[in-house]
C-alpha cells in the first residue's frame, strides 16, 4: 500500500483521516437502496437489567424496543478488541461495494481485511486514542461500526465544542435495515454526553447516496471542501455539520 493509504489509518490524536461510508444509505423507515418500502419489525421482549429497562451489561437496543432484521435483534455496545476482524471485514467490504465507480478499482482491490485489522488493532491499543467506537451486534456478530470523537482541525464560525463522525460502516447486505441510522443516533447521544454541541463529518462529493443519508439525518454542507488522493486520482470531499 502506498504512503497515502497508510495515512488513512492514523490515530485520532495524529489526525486520522478515516473516510466515510455507511451501509444504511436511505432512510430505513422509508425505503431501501432500491426504493422499496422497508417494514420495521417490532422486536420481541428481551431481559433487562433491574430498574433500568435496558439489556444487562449496559448494552442498548435500538429505539428502546429494538430493530429486528431477518428475525435477529441488533444491539449497540462499545467495540472490543475481539470485534476487530469483524469490523475490518465490514469496512473493507463496504468500501469495495460503495465506492466502486468512484474510487479507483485498483485501490479497492488492494484492500484486505488482514491489513485493515492490523491497523485497527494498533489504533484501538494506542494510549493517545481519543475516539469512541461503537458496534452494532446481531446474531452473526458485529454488523456495523461507528467511530467518532473531537473534530480534527478548526471549524470556524461554530460556537461550542465540535465533535466529528470519523467513520460509519454497515455490512453491505444489511443496507436499509436501520442499523446505520441507529449507530449514528447512538454516537450523537454519546457526543452530547461528552459536551459536544455540533457534529461534523466529511463525505466524498460524488457519494450522493451518503450525502442524502446525512442530509436526512439533519446534516448540512457548510461550504468547506478538501481533496484526497487515491492512486493518483484526486477526489473532493465536503464537510457536513449538524447541531446536537
Please name the defining characteristics of this protein.
6 helices; 10 strands; disordered N terminus; globular; 244 residues; alpha+beta
Task: Describe the model.
With 244 residues, the chain is α+β, with helices and mostly antiparallel strands. The chain contains six helices and ten strands; from the N terminus they run αββββαααβββαβαββ. It has helices at 3-6, 84-98, 105-110, 113-125, 179-193, 208-216; strands at residues 41-42, 60-61, 67-69, 72-78, 132-138, 141-150, 162-170, 198-204, 220-230, 233-243. Strands 1, 2, 3, 4, 5, 6, 7, 8, 9 and 10 form a ten-stranded mixed sheet that branches. Helix 2 packs across helix 4. The longest helix is centred in the middle third of the chain and has 15 residues, at 84-98. It is globular and about 40 Å long. The N and C termini lie far apart (37 Å). The model is unreliable at 1-59 and 61-65 (pLDDT under 50).
Summary of the model, kept short:
The protein is α+β, with helices and mostly antiparallel strands.
Q: What pattern of helices and strands is seen along the backbone?
A: HEEEEHHHEEEHEHEE
Shape call: globular
**Helix-residue proportion:** 25-40%
Strand content: 25-35%
Multimerization status: single chain
Distance between the termini: 37 Å
Segments where pLDDT lies below 50 for 5+ residues? Answer: 1-59, 61-65
Q: DSSP helix count?
A: 6
| Mean of pLDDT | 77
By helix and strand content, what is the structural category?
alpha+beta
Radius of gyration: 17 Å
Largest sheet: 10 strands, mixed
Number of strands: 10
Amino acid at each position: 500500500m502506498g504512503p497515502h493509504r497508510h495515512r488513512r489509518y492514523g490515530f485520532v490524536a495524529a489526525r486520522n483521516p478515516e473516510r466515510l461510508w455507511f451501509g444504511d444509505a436511505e432512510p430505513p423507515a422509508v425505503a431501501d437502496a432500491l426504493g422499496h418500502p422497508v417494514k420495521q419489525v417490532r422486536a420481541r421482549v428481551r431481559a433487562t437489567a433491574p430498574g433500568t429497562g435496558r439489556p444487562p451489561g449496559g448494552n442498548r437496543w435500538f429505539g428502546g424496543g429494538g430493530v429486528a432484521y431477518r428475525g435477529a435483534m441488533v444491539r449497540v455496545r462499545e467495540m472490543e478488541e475481539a470485534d476487530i476482524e469483524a469490523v475490518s471485514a465490514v469496512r473493507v467490504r463496504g468500501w469495495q461495494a460503495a465506492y466502486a465507480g468512484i474510487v479507483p478499482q485498483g485501490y479497492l482491490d488492494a484492500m484486505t481485511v488482514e491489513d485493515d485489522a492490523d491497523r485497527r488493532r494498533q489504533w484501538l491499543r494506542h494510549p493517545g486514542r481519543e475516539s469512541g467506537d461503537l458496534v452494532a451486534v446481531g446474531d452473526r456478530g458485529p454488523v456495523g461500526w461507528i467511530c467518532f470523537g473531537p473534530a480534527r482541525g478548526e471549524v470556524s464560525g461554530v460556537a461550542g465544542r465540535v465533535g466529528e463522525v470519523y467513520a460509519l460502516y454497515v455490512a453491505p447486505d444489511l443496507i436499509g435495515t436501520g442499523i446505520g441510522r441507529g449507530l449514528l443516533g447512538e454516537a450523537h447521544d454519546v457526543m452530547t454526553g461528552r459536551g459536544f454541541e455540533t457534529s461534523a463529518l466529511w463525505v466524498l462529493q460524488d457519494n450522493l447516496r451518503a450525502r442524502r443519508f446525512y442530509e436526512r439525518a439533519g446534516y448540512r454542507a457548510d461550504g468547506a471542501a478538501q481533496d484526497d488522493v487515491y492512486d493518483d486520482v484526486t477526489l473532493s470531499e465536503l464537510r457536513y455539520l449538524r447541531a446536537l
